[in-house]
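Hi there,

I know you've been waiting on this one. I reran it after we fixed the sequence typo, so this is the corrected version. Both the input and the resulting structure follow.
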Amino acid sequence: MISTAAAVAVASLMTAVVMDLRYAVASSEWRATLSRLVVYCAGAVGVIFLGIGYARMAGAITSMAARLRSGSFLEGDRDSLPTLRGLVQALDERLAESNRAVRQFQTELKDLEIRSQLSERERRHTEAILYSLRDAVIVIDGSDRLLMANSPAAQLFGFDPENVRHRPLAEVIAGEQAEFLELLVQCRRNRTEATRRELEISQGDRTRTYETIVSCVQTDGKVSGVVAVLHDVTREKEISQMKNDFVSHVSHELKTPLASIMAYSEMLADGEADDEETRKEFYSVIQSQAQRLSRLIEDILNVSRIESGLIKVNKEPASLTILIEEQLQMIRNYAEEKNITVTAGRAIVYDQVHVDKDMMSQVIINLLSNAVKYTPPGGRVTIGTDVDEAAGRVRVTVSDTGVGIPENEIGRVFDKFYRVAANNKQAKGTGLGLNLVKQIVEKVHGGRVFVTSKVGAGSTFGFELPLATTRQAALV
């Protein structure tokens, strides 16, 4: 029984040794692991010798007890027999105690093995959580050596986390990230529990902003490492700046018509319009500025309604050629003031679409007015329609000979509040017109907007819509 218990205990110890070896290979924590291996090996050797000794002693005592019971032991000295039997009984009791101690030791080893497995599982679970985070996470030890880094951190700083573990962080991260390194070192030296700072980190030709949270890890009152979490807030900063720019632009756009309305109203109230013709001129200015103000407010409300899904849509079959012709009459007066020629392509026989007429008219007028706005005097604006019956699509394009759009900004011209920085002086605006076009075409009507442009040569904006079915077209 004792030898069996010793064998089980040794097997348990060897299991723990193998687990620590696997953990050592995985984590590279050699010093702590080797110390545990030494303890395990010493324990195993002790258990082996203890089992052998107990086995020999048990054999001798069993043999002696058998001889005592049979009466073959010390036949010549019957008086000492009770004493010897007492001694055997005492030895049996001690042997039973030893067996109980071995079983308790075996139980403790089993508990230790279970706790070790649970600890290993928790460690792997914790690492899996950290590696699954989208934010960049970096952990260094008390000597500023890299202990762990997840994939976003490796991509951000450009290193392989498996090949640089336990190397000084200053060797792993490029020298231009000195501010981040200094933040980690200061946190370790000052034992800062948690600190937050915004850092700008260069990635190629672009700089991104990260909200960085750094915390010092302390164990038994000593600094054992530092944890840094970097959250990309570049987009949030851009949106915040866009909102600020929008408020600034809208404030300017609102103030301009309001100032005109107030000025001409005051002149009328003061009696400065002496004749009917002057009064009509003042009324006309007030009316046009009020309409401008109304359009601006309506654009803001429409974008908000479409995004929230609260806008009412009344779709019906309509001809794009007719809708375009109606808007051309409105835009030509504005174009003539700038000496810009506006022409339309040939009429299309079948260009029926199922749309909200008011919204689609808004799309057409926004594209035409945008083209005229950014075209210098003497330029040309052309609107055309093409039908692809095989694909069941109709395309409308508005081309101009204007200032054009830089290539790196083309992808953002339909964003809300966005205006091309190079063209801000060319014309005023809020950056809502093209976004409203995108919202109406894509979100409300299931179409697609597009743009091509070349700086100094002009731009072509347009959209595609599905053709109306035969049943829908018959309702026109």
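Quick highlight: The chain has twelve helices and twelve strands.

Best,
R. S.
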